[in-house]
Design brief:
Layout (H helix, E strand, L loop, with lengths): L2 H13 L13 E2 L8 H12 L10 H10 L8 E5 H10 L2 E2 L21 E13 L24 E2 L7 H13 L8 H11 L11 H6 L4 E5 H9 L5 E4 L5 E11 L5 H11 L2 H9 L3 E2 L7 H4 L5 H4 L2 E2 L3 H18 L2
Parallel strand pairs: 1-2, 5-6, 8-10
Antiparallel strand pairs: 2-8, 3-8, 4-6, 4-7, 4-8, 4-9
Helix pairs in contact: 3-4, 4-13, 5-6
């Protein structure tokens, strides 16, 4: 077996692709799941416009960072997509490279690492992604406290907050809403203990399809997934920003240090921040980091601004710093 085939096979095994998948890939992106944030559409456009084939990858943010660290001496991925706290951690661990893509100057300060080791491409707001049909006549919950009611037993899901960024972001939202801060996660831990009595579902990967099917009636998730379900998949769903409050958080990308296809990786990062790439995110109901990509027609499909006023940003560096401590408490006290 040639060296090229060995490397390609390693990439396929690492990505967990199906046995029938082709080993040919022009670049590897960790955590680019087709059901999430319209990565499927973005990768199709990259293939069409750039001629770069990228296999879809269903890791979550935590799994992607773990893989980068494990492969540090022999990287497989070229670029990686993850929640901001994982991007900060990846930079600290030295597994990503400095690269400032096209449109770098249009990214607001605070949403990019000064050295170019990570930068935001879009953001989302945490709330309730609700399949109204699956509620069987129950009211759509409007608050974090509503989810604790016995009538929602077995109906609420959240992604594993020790691994998936959306799970950790949900924990931060809960914690902030009940008076906690990055140095005190007791409110969130107490909330998850109470929610445990309602037998929540805790998947590790995106559960979009499970909400659409009605298997999961209520998922703690981002606004963009709920809007996509409503407007693209015509599902009877509703997005709710809880009355107590929530958070807005960015998703970021990085170039992988010593990657096998750095030039292609850089082209991909340039593309997702281009006007065309940012428009893909806007059309998938994400807030593009370059604000001009958001059209009034798309904006009109979001909840009113009065609802979004309940969602705040946080200190993302402190959020990253607090993540390991929260995860350990969750494992020790909740799970």
């Amino acid at each position: 077996m040639s060296i090229f085939k060995k490397v390609s096979k390693l990439a396929v095994l690492s990505l967990g692709l199906t046995a029938g998948a082709s080993y040919a890939a022009d670049a590897i992106c960790y955590n680019c799941p087709p059901e999430w944030a319209n990565w499927g559409g973005q990768l199709e456009l990259i293939k069409k416009d750039l001629g770069i084939s990228i296999p879809m990858d269903n890791k979550n943010s935590g799994q992607s960072l773990s893989q980068l660290v494990a492969e540090e001496n022999s990287p497989v991925a070229d670029v990686v997509y993850y929640g901001v706290s994982f991007g900060i951690k990846a930079a600290e661990k030295g597994v990503v490279a400095s690269y400032k893509p096209k449109n770098w100057d249009k990214i607001p300060q605070g949403l990019k690492d000064p050295q170019g080791r990570w930068f935001a491409i879009h953001s989302g707001t945490i709330g309730f992604f609700v399949n109204k049909d699956a509620l069987d006549g129950r009211p759509v919950p409007q608050s974090w406290n509503d989810l604790l009611k016995p009538e929602y037993k077995g109906m609420v899901a959240y992604l594993d907050p020790t691994s998936a960024f959306v799970g950790y972001a949900s924990a931060v939202a809960i914690n902030q809403s009940f008076g906690g801060d990055m140095s005190n996660f007791t409110p969130a831990i107490d909330y998850f203990k109470k929610l445990a009595k309602n037998q929540p579902i805790v998947p590790k990967q995106t559960a979009y399809a499970r909400v659409i099917s009605g298997e999961i009636p209520i998922l703690l998730d981002y606004d963009f997934n709920a809007y996509r379900a409503k407007y693209k998949d015509s599902a009877n769903v509703q997005f709710v920003i809880p009355q107590e409050g929530s958070v807005v958080v960015p998703y970021v990308m990085s170039a992988v240090k010593n990657s096998p296809h750095p030039e292609n990786g850089h082209k991909v990062l340039d593309f997702v921040l281009s006007d065309k790439g940012q428009q893909v995110w806007a059309e998938a109901y994400l807030r593009p980091v370059i604000a001009t990509a958001m059209t009034p027609e798309i904006e009109a499909k979001f909840l009113p601004e009065s609802d979004y006023k309940r969602a705040k940003t946080v200190d993302f560096a402190k959020m990253a710093e607090a993540q390991s401590g929260f995860a350990q408490r969750y494992l020790n006290e909740v799970r």
